[in-house]
Design goal:
The complex is a heterodimer of chains A (202) and B (352).
Chain A: H1 7-12, H2 26-37, H3 41-63, H4 66-82, H5 93-109, E1 126-128, H6 141-153, H7 156-167, H8 172-178, H9 184-201
Helix pairs in contact in A: 2-3, 3-4, 3-5, 4-5, 6-9, 7-9, 8-9
Chain B: H1 2-12, H2 15-22, H3 26-38, H4 43-55, E1 56-58, H5 68-82, H6 87-94, H7 102-105, E2 111-117, E3 142-146, E4 153-156, E5 162-165, E6 170-174, E7 181-187, E8 190-195, E9 201-206, E10 209-213, E11 218-221, E12 227-231, E13 237-240, E14 248-250, E15 254-259, E16 264-269, H8 272-276, E17 282-288, H9 290-301, E18 304-308, E19 317-322, H10 326-337, E20 340-344, E21 347-351
Parallel strand pairs in B: 2-11, 7-9, 18-21
Antiparallel strand pairs in B: 2-8, 3-6, 4-5, 5-8, 6-7, 9-10, 10-13, 12-15, 13-14, 15-16, 17-19, 20-21
Classes of the chains: A mainly alpha (202), B alpha+beta (352).
């Protein structure tokens, strides 16, 4: 289980047995974005309302600095609002905004894309909790403990990747873009390696 | 057993499996439930992967941001600081030959040009006021500028945009534009030199048509009650009407005509001089009929024209008169169309 490389091939194996349903929510995002770009303030407010909390949590986890995060979010929205007509297409507004925010935070903090997560604070603190888990448990107390220890040992990069993958449901190509990776494969590898570490703890 | 482990791993790294666990929807439900039925030996792995994903949690930041709306207000307040550059417009406007320089002038990117024209093909009776849509904030006092027949007016709007109002027209606008849009209502004919501010659409409401300045410069022609026409000189505009689902974008040189009675739109090309010439004191007719000529003269010179007798044939008059007195114009017409005329004060009589 500690040789994650071998899983890169499996990633191309899209078929676990049946045909996949296609993701459904993308069209409405594109519509909303177009309305916004064409000048609708209703669309702007919708976008703001839908994404502020998530962006704040993301920015704070990334930087550990609430005030800076708030300022950067403000700047991002001011910028897209003033330049709306010249903005590009997107069918995932969340990802678009996350990208803007991270870029802004990185610039403000004078850090590179790769090191931003390695600051004094603990970015993307992921834990394993038994509380929410169902009656029919596969993982017992002791395994949970080990899982938590494994989580703690993960590098900042891996945690960040896991955050995008499990908590923001971003596809691998977006993860690689957010993390400044040149290949989708690299993002996939980060996630795979992290999960392989976790699995080996069980 | 190694193979079984792989399944859990595959599930854990499968975005769609994660989505099913985190944010299930009907399709994903159908898919994974049937997938389990198709792979009864892998149900255990599904359960385990599910459990891991459900159990993974982000440590709470212990921080709740209560400034959501404070931040929003700052976002909405920012545009003003960045859009106060109207110096160029002011300089150009003071130049009396400003309009003669139109060719060069359209290259100045900071200026939007919008002409909204209404041609009263008949006469003042067509001043049947279209529905005037009030600007968004009713608590802002509304201002009205009116031109009588024979009168033209040039003034500035609160945002620095300039307006030329042709004779017998009316423009209603708020004392102060709000932060969302700059909306004015026009009855009649006007030329708008719109100050660029991409965060606030400049919107002209004329009857049922709403014209938005989008890119740089454009020219709208809004004619008599049954016919509205929008003409774009340069830049980009969007014309909205109830019957247009997404509005209509015009390219420079294009004119959109709309007939109320038939609810029909027609896209043609036009010559800018014909549309905006009035600002330069250019009175012009193109294949104009008798009624149209009389109506235009009345409006242009602010006179009342009475007719004795009848024209011997139907008119198809073409001609341009630049800054001419009424008697000179009538002189030439009388020669071509064979009539006599007299001018007494504001009353004109044509005798056939």
């Amino acid at each position: 289980m500690n040789k994650p490389k071998k899983y890169t091939d499996l990633a191309e194996d899209k078929d676990l047995g049946l045909h996949r349903p296609k993701p459904v929510s993308e069209e409405t995002d594109a519509d909303l974005w177009n309305q916004f770009r064409q000048g609708s303030e209703t669309a702007f407010i919708k976008i703001y309302e839908q994404h502020f909390e998530q962006l704040f949590n993301y920015g704070y986890r990334l930087s550990g600095q609430p005030q800076l995060t708030e300022d950067c979010i403000q700047d991002v929205f001011i910028k897209i609002r003033l330049k709306r007509a010249g903005l590009g297409d997107t069918n995932c507004i969340k990802f678009y905004l996350m990208k803007c925010l991270k870029r802004k935070l990185v610039r403000e903090m004078g850090k590179s894309k790769k090191t931003i997560a390695c600051l004094g604070h603990e970015p993307f603190f992921i834990i394993y909790s038994h509380e929410q888990v169902l009656i029919d448990q596969q993982i017992h107390e002791e395994q949970a403990l080990q899982l938590n220890q494994a989580l703690e040992k993960l590098s900042g990069r891996k945690k960040e990747a896991l955050y995008y993958f499990y908590f923001e449901s971003l596809p691998y190509h977006q993860i690689s873009e957010l993390m400044g990776l040149s290949h989708v494969k690299s993002a996939r590898n980060l996630v795979y390696q992290a999960i392989a570490t976790l699995k080996s703890a069980l | 057993m190694e193979k079984q482990k792989d399944i859990t791993f595959l599930l854990l790294t499968d975005p769609e499996f994660v989505r099913w666990v985190r944010k299930p929807n009907g399709e994903l439900d159908t898919y994974w439930k049937n997938w389990m039925l198709a792979h009864p030996d892998k149900v255990e792995q599904v359960k385990k992967a599910r459990e891991i994903i459900v159990g993974l949690q982000l440590k709470q930041t212990g921080l709740e941001n209560t400034n959501k709306y404070k931040v929003l207000q700052q976002i909405l307040a920012t545009e003003k600081a960045e859009t106060g550059t109207s110096g160029k417009v002011a300089t150009l406007q003071r130049n009396p030959f400003f309009w003669l320089l139109l060719g060069q002038w359209t290259k100045v990117a900071a200026i939007l040009v919008l002409t909204l024209m209404s041609i009263f093909v008949l006469s003042r009776m067509s001043l049947n006021p279209p529905v005037v849509v009030a600007p968004e904030k009713p608590d802002t006092p509304l201002l009205t500028k009116v031109t009588q027949f024979g009168e033209k007016l040039n003034f500035k709007l609160p945002d620095g945009s300039s307006v030329w109002l042709n004779s017998g027209s009316e423009l209603i606008f708020p004392e102060k534009f709000d932060s969302l849009e700059r909306r004015v209502s026009l009855i009649g004919e006007g030329f708008f030199d719109v100050h660029q501010d991409s965060s606030r659409t400049f919107r002209v409401v004329s009857g049922d048509l709403i014209t938005d300045a989008i890119g740089t410069s454009f020219n709208v022609k809004y004619s008599e009650k049954d016919e509205l026409a929008v003409s774009l000189v340069s830049g980009k505009i969007k014309v909205n009407h109830d019957s247009l689902e997404h509005g209509l974008f015009l390219e420079p040189g294009e004119q959109l005509r709309y007939r109320d009675s038939s609810n029909s739109f027609e896209l043609t090309s036009f010559s800018p001089e014909n549309i905006t010439g009035w600002k330069d004191g250019l009175l012009q007719f193109t294949d104009a009929g008798f009624d149209e000529v009389i109506g235009q003269l009345e409006r242009w010179y602010g006179v009342k024209i009475s007719i004795s007798g009848k024209p011997g044939h139907s008119w198809r008059l073409s001609g341009k008169y630049k800054n001419q007195n009424l008697d000179l114009v009538l002189d030439r017409m009388a020669y071509i169309e064979k009539f006599e005329y007299s001018i007494i004060g504001k009353n004109v009589n044509l005798k056939f």
